[in-house]
Amino acid sequence: MTDEDSAFDVLGVLSDPVRRRLYRYVAAAPKEVGRDAAAEAARVSRSLAAFHLDKLVEAGLLAVSFRRLSGRTGPGAGRPAKLYRRAEGEHAVSVPPRSYEAAGRLLAEVLENAGLDRELQAAARAAGAAQPDARADDVVAALRARGYEPFWDGGTLRLRNCPFHALAAEFPALICGMNLALVEGLAPEQWSPAMDPCPGGCCVALSKNKND
Asked: What end-to-end distance do the CA atoms of the chain give, in Å?
């Protein structure tokens, strides 16, 4: 089986609408999710949610851990709950095959070697501001539409996913600077994006200005 065949099989698991709802809920959650919460979010029974969640685990789309939610230990503490989180791997299919990641890597290498960080950031900031919904009041929706998976952490809006993860891992200074500039261009004026990495997520976080 080729890598393309494997990717088709993995993404084919999401053809079921219940599995898509469950995957989206778990993937967007800032913490691990139990079966009861997932079932409620997908509006299905606990047993059906458990079945589909485990199918997503088998496909490599979700990962599991076990923990007692009560925090108690020892005899009488009950069985540990099975918890789900998004798996670390990435899955993509292009028909016909394309290699945008390879082109992105080459361009990033050239920009970094040429010291064009500021020029890239200026272009990214302008691109963010030029988006149709740029400066929209609902910055959460705008970020969600771009795959950032925003969530609230107290008064801070954190981003669960980095849309540029592969390039950011290889060219962190270049790509994270570009990402911050892009979000600055996209966010309304009452928001202040800043470098504040989320564990396992994006390097950028947003907070509202104190006078707003």
From this structure: 55
